Amino acid sequence: MKSLQDRLNDIGRALGKDVDKLNKEAQPYDYKKQRAHYDTLANQEIGKLQQQSKQKRVEALYGQSELNKHWTFDTLQEDAPDVIEAISIARSFIAAHKDAGWRNSNAHMMLFYGDYGRGKSHIAGAIAHQLIQQFETTVLYRQLQTLLEMRFFSYDYQANDNASQQFREINKQLHDVDLLILDEVCVNETVLKKSAQSWLGNLLRQRAANNKNCILITNHNLAELEKALGRYCFESMKEYETYKVRFQGPSRREAISQGQAEPSNQQGSAYRPNEI
């Protein structure tokens, strides 16, 4: 019985080919080389699909985070010692996420406090952006006062705006996300109401128990913050490994100068109450 190669030679001769010459010039088949080549192509294709899949997941994480897209390290102005120090601490906090032991050992909290307009929210947002990109960390950015208002309106059970359902959904996110950023903590508040203190304190304690990290941003100094949050809530913060970062100095926000402000009009046709 003829082998496969003999049959191929017969076909070649029938077609007028110089089979002996072709066989001499033919390169021996290198299975290992070909296998390596196809493995490389397959791995490249898998890598491309994985990258596309990661991009979709990252976009979904951004969608739920409610982060300002401009709050990145690239847009930060490193023009003052407190900001430079804060950025250094922020980068160390991000780098620590590479260590699984660090992530699982405890809950971690960064407390940004100090003057208005110093970049506290910007740096917190930059941390969140970096963690999403590098580690696909789930993030939620919220202003505390907005949450407290949602919580208040959720008690109106006769309302038709689904406020109760919306708050239950957001409350679940507050507990579940890997990093919760609470901004404007106790803004314009001398002391939070007792019910708000209890709710926030319980939220922080439950997140700490599950090793979920937080960033709190406030314009109070630490003594004022303790008074504003109340003892129970402030004690909840001690459940975390806390990194306190103080911001000081003048605001970065553009001032409304006297020339830019509208002049007051005390005479002429300005409205005067109870005037006949």
From TrEMBL:
It comes from the Bacteria. InterPro entries: DnaA_dom, P-loop_NTPase. Residues 251-276 are annotated as: Disordered. Residues 67-226 form the Chromosomal replication initiator protein DnaA ATPAse domain. Residues 257-269 have a biased composition (Polar residues). Gene3D superfamilies: P-loop containing nucleotide triphosphate hydrolases. PANTHER family: ATP-BINDING PROTEIN RV3427C IN INSERTION SEQUENCE-RELATED (PTHR30050:SF4), CHROMOSOMAL REPLICATION INITIATOR PROTEIN DNAA (PTHR30050). This is DnaA ATPase domain-containing protein. It comes from Glaciecola siphonariae.
